[in-house]
Amino acid sequence: MQVDAVQFGVFLALNLLVAVLTWWRCGRAEHSADASRDYFLAGGALSWPFIACSLLLTNLSAEQIVGMNGAQALLVAWWEFGAAAGLIVLAHVLVPMYYKYRCTTTTELLEHRLGDAGLRRIVSALFLLGYQFILLPVVLYTGAVFMKSMFAVDVPVVVIAAALALAGLGYAALGGLRAIAISDMYIGIGLLVMGLTVTGFALHAIGWDLSGVPTERWTLVGSAQSDIPWTTLLTGMLFIHLFYWGTNMVIAQRALAARTVREAQKGIYAAAALKMLTPLIVVLPGIIAWKLYGPVGDVAYGKLVAGVLPPWLSGAFATMIAGAVISSFNACLNSAAALYTCDFHLPLVNADARIKPIGQRVTIVFTVIAIALVPLYERSRSIIDTLQRLNGLYSMPVLAAFIAAVFLRGIGATAVKVGIAFGAALYAVFTFAWSPLHYIHLMAITLASTLAVMLVVARLPFARASVQTS
């Protein structure tokens, strides 16, 4: 195993610099008297640049950069273009409601709107299961795949994943959302600059000549056999974005940490604008890699970076990718800790418990389990495709609950609970037993069916008692 000393030295030095600057800024910050808001929402003091960078970096991690470039096709750019719709709904519909009720978690909105703490905990449990068994191990796996392919080291993926996880655990457990957002600011700017730099070097490596790439690699109109058939843009694609950007605690938590609603909205708009640039980082390099190396899949981006950048610059870029992985990982850990602490521990175990130690214990447990699950994802054909498929097990039922709580009248918590159970079971059948259509179509069917069940159950006598009249 031979590691370039310059490349690795730059990588370590820049990671250390980001850590030192982050802890220095954290030490100077004012702290809130509300322990939950201070640890989980940075005391409600984030300005819009921090929110924008943190939103972008939490989303733009290795599972996006590695996974989308690994598809080696322009078609996956729809995941980036569609983000704007979800961000607009977050800014104009959900953020004002989250602030109206002073929510620490997104699930708290369900309790305020439907008057049932049990429903809040059901949705929290679905989020926690999704984070633990899907998002966290996928983030670690894709980050480790990139690092292994870039540094060309003969080390098991799970070992590299463990190193990334421990770094993320340090930010999440010790500094909470404040440390995460500050480090995101530094890494986010660096990632955008370095990502565009990689694309520039890659284009230079092929003489700015993209001829020879098959036509199907350039199309935005997917066939029925593609990962994103064009018809899915009219069905489930929009709802996937509404769930991810509007209700998902990992994302919305950043918007909840602003000083005001207006500050949160400014950060969201900036993030939406930046998402229009990201195909240059998460899509185009994969196509260039196809021309250089052929259909290499999820190792495309790491191989490209190692091939076109000089060692010192590739070491700098590896820092940005590692930071993006750590950001998404620690963001998910912090969200999981917030959901467990605020939705389960404080109301059910000990209302006077100290917030930070509980959150730290939760992050440790989730980290250990996530590392253990990493090897399961090494068998995935397409990691971005696998991630979206598995997310449907809870995303559509949860989105249906938020739609019912925010937009529908006359539906109580009992009907929503029945609908969630039905939706999760229906999509599980579609995923593991019977798949008559593309999974994005099946997500739309699951959402519509779940809402229909909620409406029907709401009319039954046993469900009417749970309807909120205020």
Largest beta-sheet details: none
Overall mean pLDDT score?
Answer: 86
Q: Helicity level, as a percent range?
A: over 70%
Portion in strands: under 5%
Can you tell me the CATH class?
Mainly Alpha
Question: Could you state the CATH homologous superfamily?
Answer: Sodium/glucose cotransporter
CATH topology: Sodium/glucose cotransporter
Instruction: Give the CA-CA distance, first to last residue.
Output: 66 Å
Summarize the entry for a quick read:
By secondary structure, the chain is mainly alpha-helical.
Tell me the layout of helices and strands.
Blueprint: H1 5-28, H2 35-40, H3 48-59, H4 62-71, H5 78-81, H6 83-100, H7 108-114, H8 117-151, H9 157-205, H10 236-247, H11 249-255, H12 261-275, H13 279-282, H14 284-293, H15 300-308, H16 311-349, H17 355-373, H18 383-407, H19 413-432, H20 439-458, H21 461-464
What does this protein structure show overall?
By secondary structure, this protein is an all-alpha fold. It has one domain (about 5-380): Sodium/glucose cotransporter (Up-down Bundle), CATH 1.20.1730.10. It contains 21 helices and no strands. It has helices at about 5-30, 35-40, 50-60, 60-70, 80, 85-100, 110-115, 115-150, 155-205, 235-245, 250-255, 260-275, 280, 285-295, 300-310, 310-350, 355-375, 385-405, 415-430, 440-460, 460-465. Helix 1 (about 5-30) crosses helix 9, helix 10 packs across helix 18 (about 385-405) and helix 18 packs antiparallel against helix 19 (about 415-430). The radius of gyration is 22 Å and the shape is globular.
